[in-house]
């Protein structure tokens, strides 16, 4: 079974969101930044920060010339700030070893810091129009439902091969098909309350099978009261500070559980997001003199 490319692409042509990283003037570097930002973060939160970054760091060397702390501050509250550090490291490699240009080859992209299987293929496809499968949670959901008649299971090595088999043969058409497949999962074939009445596909195996429920009920991750929230509060203090701060400033930022606060602080140090100065103060990465 396949997915009707003509129906999907017609729908995409008529309804695709006007996202700035889809504009012709968006470079591969701009698209790479958007892909890193969009991981586990909604478009509405990413777009304004992405626009600021494109203006501030239009090429990798511009970001490479900035400090880790500057990049972390600019990341703001997008969440999962290690992504910002990995992107900064990637920018340094691109500037030093790739002539300030994001490469088009998937294997070369995979060799860059912080670039995984999804991001490498997304850049190759969306920035360079290559015929490569791009599989995120939205794509996996659409393929699982429309083709296999079930809810998606756990990620598998089969996902790439199955998605590649669905791509139209013409390269430009395949790249647009990948974008359309992702858009369908993001806007219509959503995880909760899919809007099947709006779906452009003339046949869906999942609908035909009576929309069977998933075999495994996935737990929704909470945020309130978690170590992740504690880490965010501590980072907020350091992002808002003009330099290193005393430990008491961090203690006051998370008072509900001292043990959790200490755990969050240790993890930030281990992840390289913050550092401790020789005199015991705390600062964003690159803003203090690490203890040796």
UniProtKB/TrEMBL annotation:
<dbReference type="GO" id="GO:0006284">
    <property type="term" value="P:base-excision repair"/>
</dbReference>
<keyword id="KW-0004">4Fe-4S</keyword>
<keyword id="KW-0479">Metal-binding</keyword>
<dbReference type="GO" id="GO:0032357">
    <property type="term" value="F:oxidized purine DNA binding"/>
</dbReference>
<dbReference type="InterPro" id="IPR044298">
    <property type="entry name" value="MIG/MutY"/>
</dbReference>
<dbReference type="Pfam" id="PF00633">
    <property type="entry name" value="HHH"/>
</dbReference>
<keyword id="KW-0411">Iron-sulfur</keyword>
<dbReference type="GO" id="GO:0051539">
    <property type="term" value="F:4 iron, 4 sulfur cluster binding"/>
</dbReference>
<feature type="domain" description="HhH-GPD">
    <location>
        <begin position="37"/>
        <end position="187"/>
    </location>
</feature>
<keyword id="KW-0234">DNA repair</keyword>
<dbReference type="InterPro" id="IPR003265">
    <property type="entry name" value="HhH-GPD_domain"/>
</dbReference>
<dbReference type="Pfam" id="PF10576">
    <property type="entry name" value="EndIII_4Fe-2S"/>
</dbReference>
<keyword id="KW-0408">Iron</keyword>
<dbReference type="InterPro" id="IPR000445">
    <property type="entry name" value="HhH_motif"/>
</dbReference>
<dbReference type="GO" id="GO:0046872">
    <property type="term" value="F:metal ion binding"/>
</dbReference>
<dbReference type="GO" id="GO:0006298">
    <property type="term" value="P:mismatch repair"/>
</dbReference>
<keyword id="KW-0326">Glycosidase</keyword>
<dbReference type="InterPro" id="IPR011257">
    <property type="entry name" value="DNA_glycosylase"/>
</dbReference>
<protein>
    <recommendedName>
        <fullName>Adenine DNA glycosylase</fullName>
        <ecNumber>3.2.2.31</ecNumber>
    </recommendedName>
</protein>
<dbReference type="GO" id="GO:0000701">
    <property type="term" value="F:purine-specific mismatch base pair DNA N-glycosylase activity"/>
</dbReference>
<keyword id="KW-0378">Hydrolase</keyword>
<dbReference type="GO" id="GO:0035485">
    <property type="term" value="F:adenine/guanine mispair binding"/>
</dbReference>
<dbReference type="InterPro" id="IPR023170">
    <property type="entry name" value="HhH_base_excis_C"/>
</dbReference>
<keyword id="KW-0227">DNA damage</keyword>
<dbReference type="InterPro" id="IPR003651">
    <property type="entry name" value="Endonuclease3_FeS-loop_motif"/>
</dbReference>
<dbReference type="GO" id="GO:0034039">
    <property type="term" value="F:8-oxo-7,8-dihydroguanine DNA N-glycosylase activity"/>
</dbReference>
<dbReference type="Pfam" id="PF00730">
    <property type="entry name" value="HhH-GPD"/>
</dbReference>
<comment type="similarity">
    <text>Belongs to the Nth/MutY family.</text>
</comment>
